[in-house]
Design brief:
Elements lengths: L2 H9 L3 E5 L11 H5 L3 E5 L10 H4 L5 E4 L13 H6 L4 E4 L9 H11 L4 E4 L2 H11 L5 H10 L5 E5 L17 H11 L4 H14 L3 E3 L1 H9 L1
Parallel strand pairs: 1-2, 1-6, 2-3, 3-4, 4-5, 6-7
Length: about 220
């Protein structure tokens, strides 16, 4: 059985929470709620890098989604020591194999990983369908959400995602929210409104999804 099949079985019938890096997590006191989920998913960085926030963001990480790009502004090099400390079971590429901007990152990770952590990547056809629909490269977090929803989960709670409307947890990146948005505009990637509209459409249709109040406010106002 390959790692993609293992990942499918790992998520099957599970209650899953995906935790983003938005500033709205600070003071949220959601740690116990997050820890109560069967599977805890995080984006780009794992819990051991934020131990002082456990009351707000929980104490577990089962799955890490990343672009696997080594630039600090894109999450930085995967910290294998942190993965081991947090008992991470799967490292997932938010972008599929076979794309010009993801293939090299995946290859480098797999060479360094040497089979220590099970690996999964988003399906290429599914990704291209989404990119074609919204006419922009989706964020790592949106790709993670969409990929998880292709699996037979029982619930997905989305928290810590605000589409750059409120800032990051300060330890997550050195970039300000304004700098991140300007960088994406300059590169022509990650237009936010099409992604908000897509997520709103999915939330209406997929009853497995629950969202926190910060994201609900953004979705309702879009």
């Amino acid at each position: 059985m390959n790692d993609d099949n293992l990942y499918f079985e790992f998520l099957k019938n599970k209650r899953v929470v995906i935790v983003g890096p938005a500033q709205s997590m600070v003071g949220s006191k959601q740690g116990s709620l997050i820890d109560n989920y069967d599977v805890v998913v995080r984006i780009k960085k794992v819990l051991s890098q934020f131990p002082h926030l456990s009351e707000d963001i929980g104490t577990r990480t089962n799955v890490l989604y990343s672009w696997l790009d080594r630039e600090p502004s894109n999450g930085g090099k995967i910290n294998f020591e942190s993965l081991e400390k947090d008992n991470v079971e799967f490292v997932c590429s938010a972008y599929p194999k076979g794309l010009w901007f993801s293939e090299g990152n995946i290859e480098i990770f797999l060479n360094e990983n040497k089979g220590k952590f099970k690996f999964h990547a988003m399906d290429k056809e599914a990704y291209l369908n989404v990119e074609g629909k919204i006419q922009t490269r989706p964020n790592t977090g949106i790709c993670a959400i969409l990929d998880i929803l292709t699996h037979c989960i029982s619930e997905l709670y989305i928290t810590g995602f605000t589409f750059f409307k409120g800032g990051y947890i300060k330890e997550y990146t050195d970039l300000t929210e304004h700098q991140a948005l300007e960088r994406m505009r300059a590169l022509g990637f990650h237009s936010q409104q099409p992604q908000i509209s897509l997520l709103k459409e999915i939330i209406v249709k997929d009853k497995r999804i629950k969202i926190d109040k910060a994201l609900e406010k953004i979705i309702l106002s879009s």
